[in-house]
Amino acid sequence: MPCVAVVADDGGSTVVDAGQGPAHARLVQSAMAEAGLPAARRLVFTHHHWDHTWGACAWEVEEIIGQESGAALLAAEARRPWSDEYLREQVVADPRLGPSFRARARAVNDWADFAVRRPTRTFTDRLVLPTGIEVRHVGGRHAPDSTVVAVPDSGVLLLGDCFYPPPFHLREPGPAGEQIDTRQINALVAEGFDWYVDSHSPPWRPPAS
């Protein structure tokens, strides 16, 4: 499962990425309630990929924020007839989709309650939320809409998947590690945050200089 981050203040919680499906979103909601955190007020997508956005239909929020190029991609995703049968058909047509599409099938228990939700508020380059959270488009090879989310008061930069290789079915031959965007991650580390959080690893600190 990808990371879902929660930034809480007196005005409500900002949730960064929605979870990979409704069940994942509900796990996060239960954890927030158990921790006594305020209810979610907004969602921020780090990018449009399914494992970061498919939980959005289980959140009740005032707004969903995403970069404008990702909003267009999610609009196209929302028009697809998602179901177990459709997923199987797509894998037969392109076997390289197998890992992603089989994981999607496991993430959604009931397609009747599922919908791809698009951002209700978009930005181009940078957006500062009332809480001081900064949402910044960085792009990259993994997704054109990759966005990082800075929480200056906590010294935290949420990276999403921005420096990761492209998705498996779009990847060039060769080891995945060689396709990591080292220039991008080095530039982000140089910004000097105390903690960095990418979506599929524990939080980490930059190496000491």
TrEMBL record:
SUPFAM superfamilies: Metallo-hydrolase/oxidoreductase
One Pfam family per UniProt: Lactamase_B
Domain Metallo-beta-lactamase: start-end pairs: 2-200
InterPro entries: Metallo-B-lactamas (IPR001279), NDM-1-like (IPR050855), RibonucZ/Hydroxyglut_hydro (IPR036866)
Name the record gives this protein: MBL fold metallo-hydrolase
Natural source organism: Streptomyces prasinosporus
